[in-house]
Amino acid sequence: MTTPAPECTALAEGLRAVRARTGLSLAALARRTPYSKSSWERYLNGKLPAPRQAVEALCAMAGEPPGRLLALWELADAEWSGRARSAAPPQAAPGPGTPAPPAAPGRAPPEAGRTAAPARRPRRLPVLGAGAAVAAAVIAAALWLPGRPSGPPGASASPALDPAPGCRGEACDGQDPDRMACGLPGRADALGPPRRTSTGARVEIRYSTVCDAVWGRAWHTRVGDAVEVSVPGATPRRAVIRTSADTRVYRFTAMLGGVDRTGLRVCFLPAGGAARECYPA
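Predicted structure:
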């Protein structure tokens, strides 16, 4: 069985969390949207690509700002459609002992359960081909659903896909790069190549120009592992891998904002108390 890409797993987990806040059953979701009960079950478990309109409708029902979930949808959609693979330049296979090549910003690494590019483009979803009628139905549902937060007169029913950064420089210190929209595609890059640890986990340092902040990222981890980013004179920021779900997606530390990057490093702390492994930026 092919392992889903981290982007797709992250979206499915996000959808499940938002659906839990609605308190609605799958049948209730089907009654309030153009999507069937079985379709919702597949979207929430990552078995079927979720359409953007379904993501927006679910957020509206939960009274949830959709910016973060739509950003995850953009990354997952690139995986479902094959754009993430077709956009990557061909690379020679690494020899024995050669570190894995750096992953493209915002993309999952090549070894994160990828398969060869599909022979044909996967179906985006049948409802997308239904045209304006379906889109209008979803927008109408979002407008009348109870609990939807009200906005100023004239505000758009569909929020921007690319929200403004929530902080910059020192204001980002200790903040979540995801919640502050600092790690969206095109806003963050890796400082140096990803590092392969003795356990097979990968770690790297991410930097956002628009937020002027850095953070650590880890993947292929085990429960109990931790990643830490630090720089002299600032409080280190650490993320611990606490559940099996964490091991299947990227895990990020909080940010170090507006710091002098001299001496910046990322450290991997293996589960069980083994010696930490640190790498400079």
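Summary: Helices lie at 6-22, 26-32, 37-44, 52-62, 67-81, 83-87, 132-144.
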